[in-house]
Write a structure and sequence with these properties.
2 domains, mainly alpha
Length: 317
Amino acid sequence: MDSPCVQQYRSPRSASLGTACRNKRKTLINRLLPSAVCPQQSLPLYLFTAAILLLLLWGVLYTLFKDLVAPRGPLFHMLFLFILAYLAGQLTSLCRLPPLLGMLVTGIVLRNVGFFHMTGIFVDLVSTLRNTAMVVILIKAGLGLDAGALRRLSLIVVRLAFIPCLAEAATVCLVSHFLLGYSWLWGLLLGNTAMVVILIKAGLGLDAGALRRLSLIVVRLAFIPCLAEAATVCLVSHFLLGYSWLWGLLLGFILGAVSPAVVVPSLLTLKEKGYGEDKGISTLVVAASSIDDIAAISGFGIVLSVIFSQGKIVNDI
């Protein structure tokens, strides 16, 4: 290292040469860094990479399945539907709406224009893909859980997940056996079906303190919108579409249910941005949507039983 005297009396020319050497050394190092080999992500590069990957995927599938992946084949239609639905979802998200809305509109349009039509084994494949999408959404919701809070509330989570489900399954089994005359196995099967619906929407990420604090708000938010939507749809379908009151009420309960595919991603987005964490907004919405679905499913089952009943309506209810 140079002494202070040498540094003080160094000529400007030698200083400029040293600066040039250091800049050249930095340029060489930057060329060898991974950030230079892998440039920063930009929208044109992202779209170009996605297009190349899709072409490669189509080429591999065409090599394996030939006519099924041809432009008129069912797998090509499915791949084209996936691409258009994804693009429509991204455009819808720019309008601050759930991407699922754009995907649903795309599927409805392509199905009604006759582009997307599946038969045979591909119907089961589409159903499997739908179930896989729901599993991915629920896994994504689980990845957003706080591990520390989950360990701290582990016993409460277990009680909140299993005790209501088992109690409802046992209650449905007893009621269906003694009032409807079902066998114990059929009653237990009916109760397990209700338990599966609740387990899918199990609030493993709920805050127990916020749930106790907002219990009355949860009940109001769960039942009032569901009943209001069912009544509104019933009135509109009766006076505008000519439906009977029971069929209108049945349609109202169908449309009044809350979809977790819309609620969970929106809550995850708000949770990542830190909105509503101190007020328990995510806990409120998840709990209310679960009870809302239970109310809608129960109302649908009751109205459906009344429509196709052959005995007393009280027994069906």
